[in-house]
Hints:
11 strands
Amino acid sequence: xxxxxxxxxxxxxxxxxxxxxxxxxxxxxxxxxxxxxxxxxxxxxxxxxxxxxxxxxxxxxxxxxxxxxxxxxxxxxxxxxxxxxxxxxxxxxxxxxxxxxxxxxxxxxxxxxxxxxxxxxxxxxxxxxxxxxxxxxxxxxxxxxxxxxxxxxxxxxxxxxxxxxxxxxxxxxxxxxxxxxxxxxxxxxxxxxxxxxxxxxxxxxxxxxxxxxxxxx
Length: 217
């Protein structure tokens, strides 16, 4: 298939691109600054197209010929203030552009949590993005994951460096919050296997590892 990865420069997207290429797919990467990914290891054969999810006129050329689009964009990396609004606008513009371009399906990686729970602003925004993408008319497969664990991610490496260098840490209260971590390898497997599973279209899947742990654990 010809597949677009939006959010290709993020942790999950950066690992997904080489896996899709290895599976034999044509991969298009949506990036704001192509110069920043020039010569990136494992991306040989991927097509780099410049665009911005917040700029709708830039999206239609990027989506030309695309059959399936992965949506891995998260505005929280640009700052905690106003990220919900940025996520809202980006999802709507991306979904409408995908519909206009004839994209047959969007695969979206969101956050784990149930509607009945008291969700954080971050998780509420993740759920809202899924709803917005669905409202644009393109069939969506949504995976909801909690903490994604794997070497190379900023949060994982910070924790590793701190614990290796400090014999004792006074943990803040949020360290007692319970979560259901999942390996990056398992997340990638879900994202890729969904391509070959027609029954996954239009569905929401909660994914997580078998253990429920506190952040401290």
